[in-house]
Amino acid sequence: xxxxxxxxxxxxxxxxxxxxxxxxxxxxxxxxxxxxxxxxxxxxxxxxxxxxxxxxxxxxxxxxxxxxxxxxxxxxxxxxxxxxxxxxxxxxxxxxxxxxxxxxxxxxxxxxxxxxxxxxxxx
Length: 123
Prior knowledge:
Blueprint: H1 2-11, H2 20-64, H3 69-122
């Protein structure tokens, strides 16, 4: 029984534990992608808010007539909120997307280098 276990361990050795740097890298990568998702959702929400304001303006104009103060105030409020959100989110989204793509490329390069080193060790 012990011989079979030793033979199995020799054929299929356990992989080495992940280094702290690798774990930290994985955590940072996941956080970066979570930030990308949050920025994309916020950008889409601001676009929905803007188009909701346009629809509200048209419906209010048809219901109340031209120049209704309540409809104009509501449209201005929604437009300003959507515009401010887009202006704040757009530069941040570009920087987060660039950072995430650089992290993905670095991770792919590290994985490729590790695969090459593992292939060299086997030969």
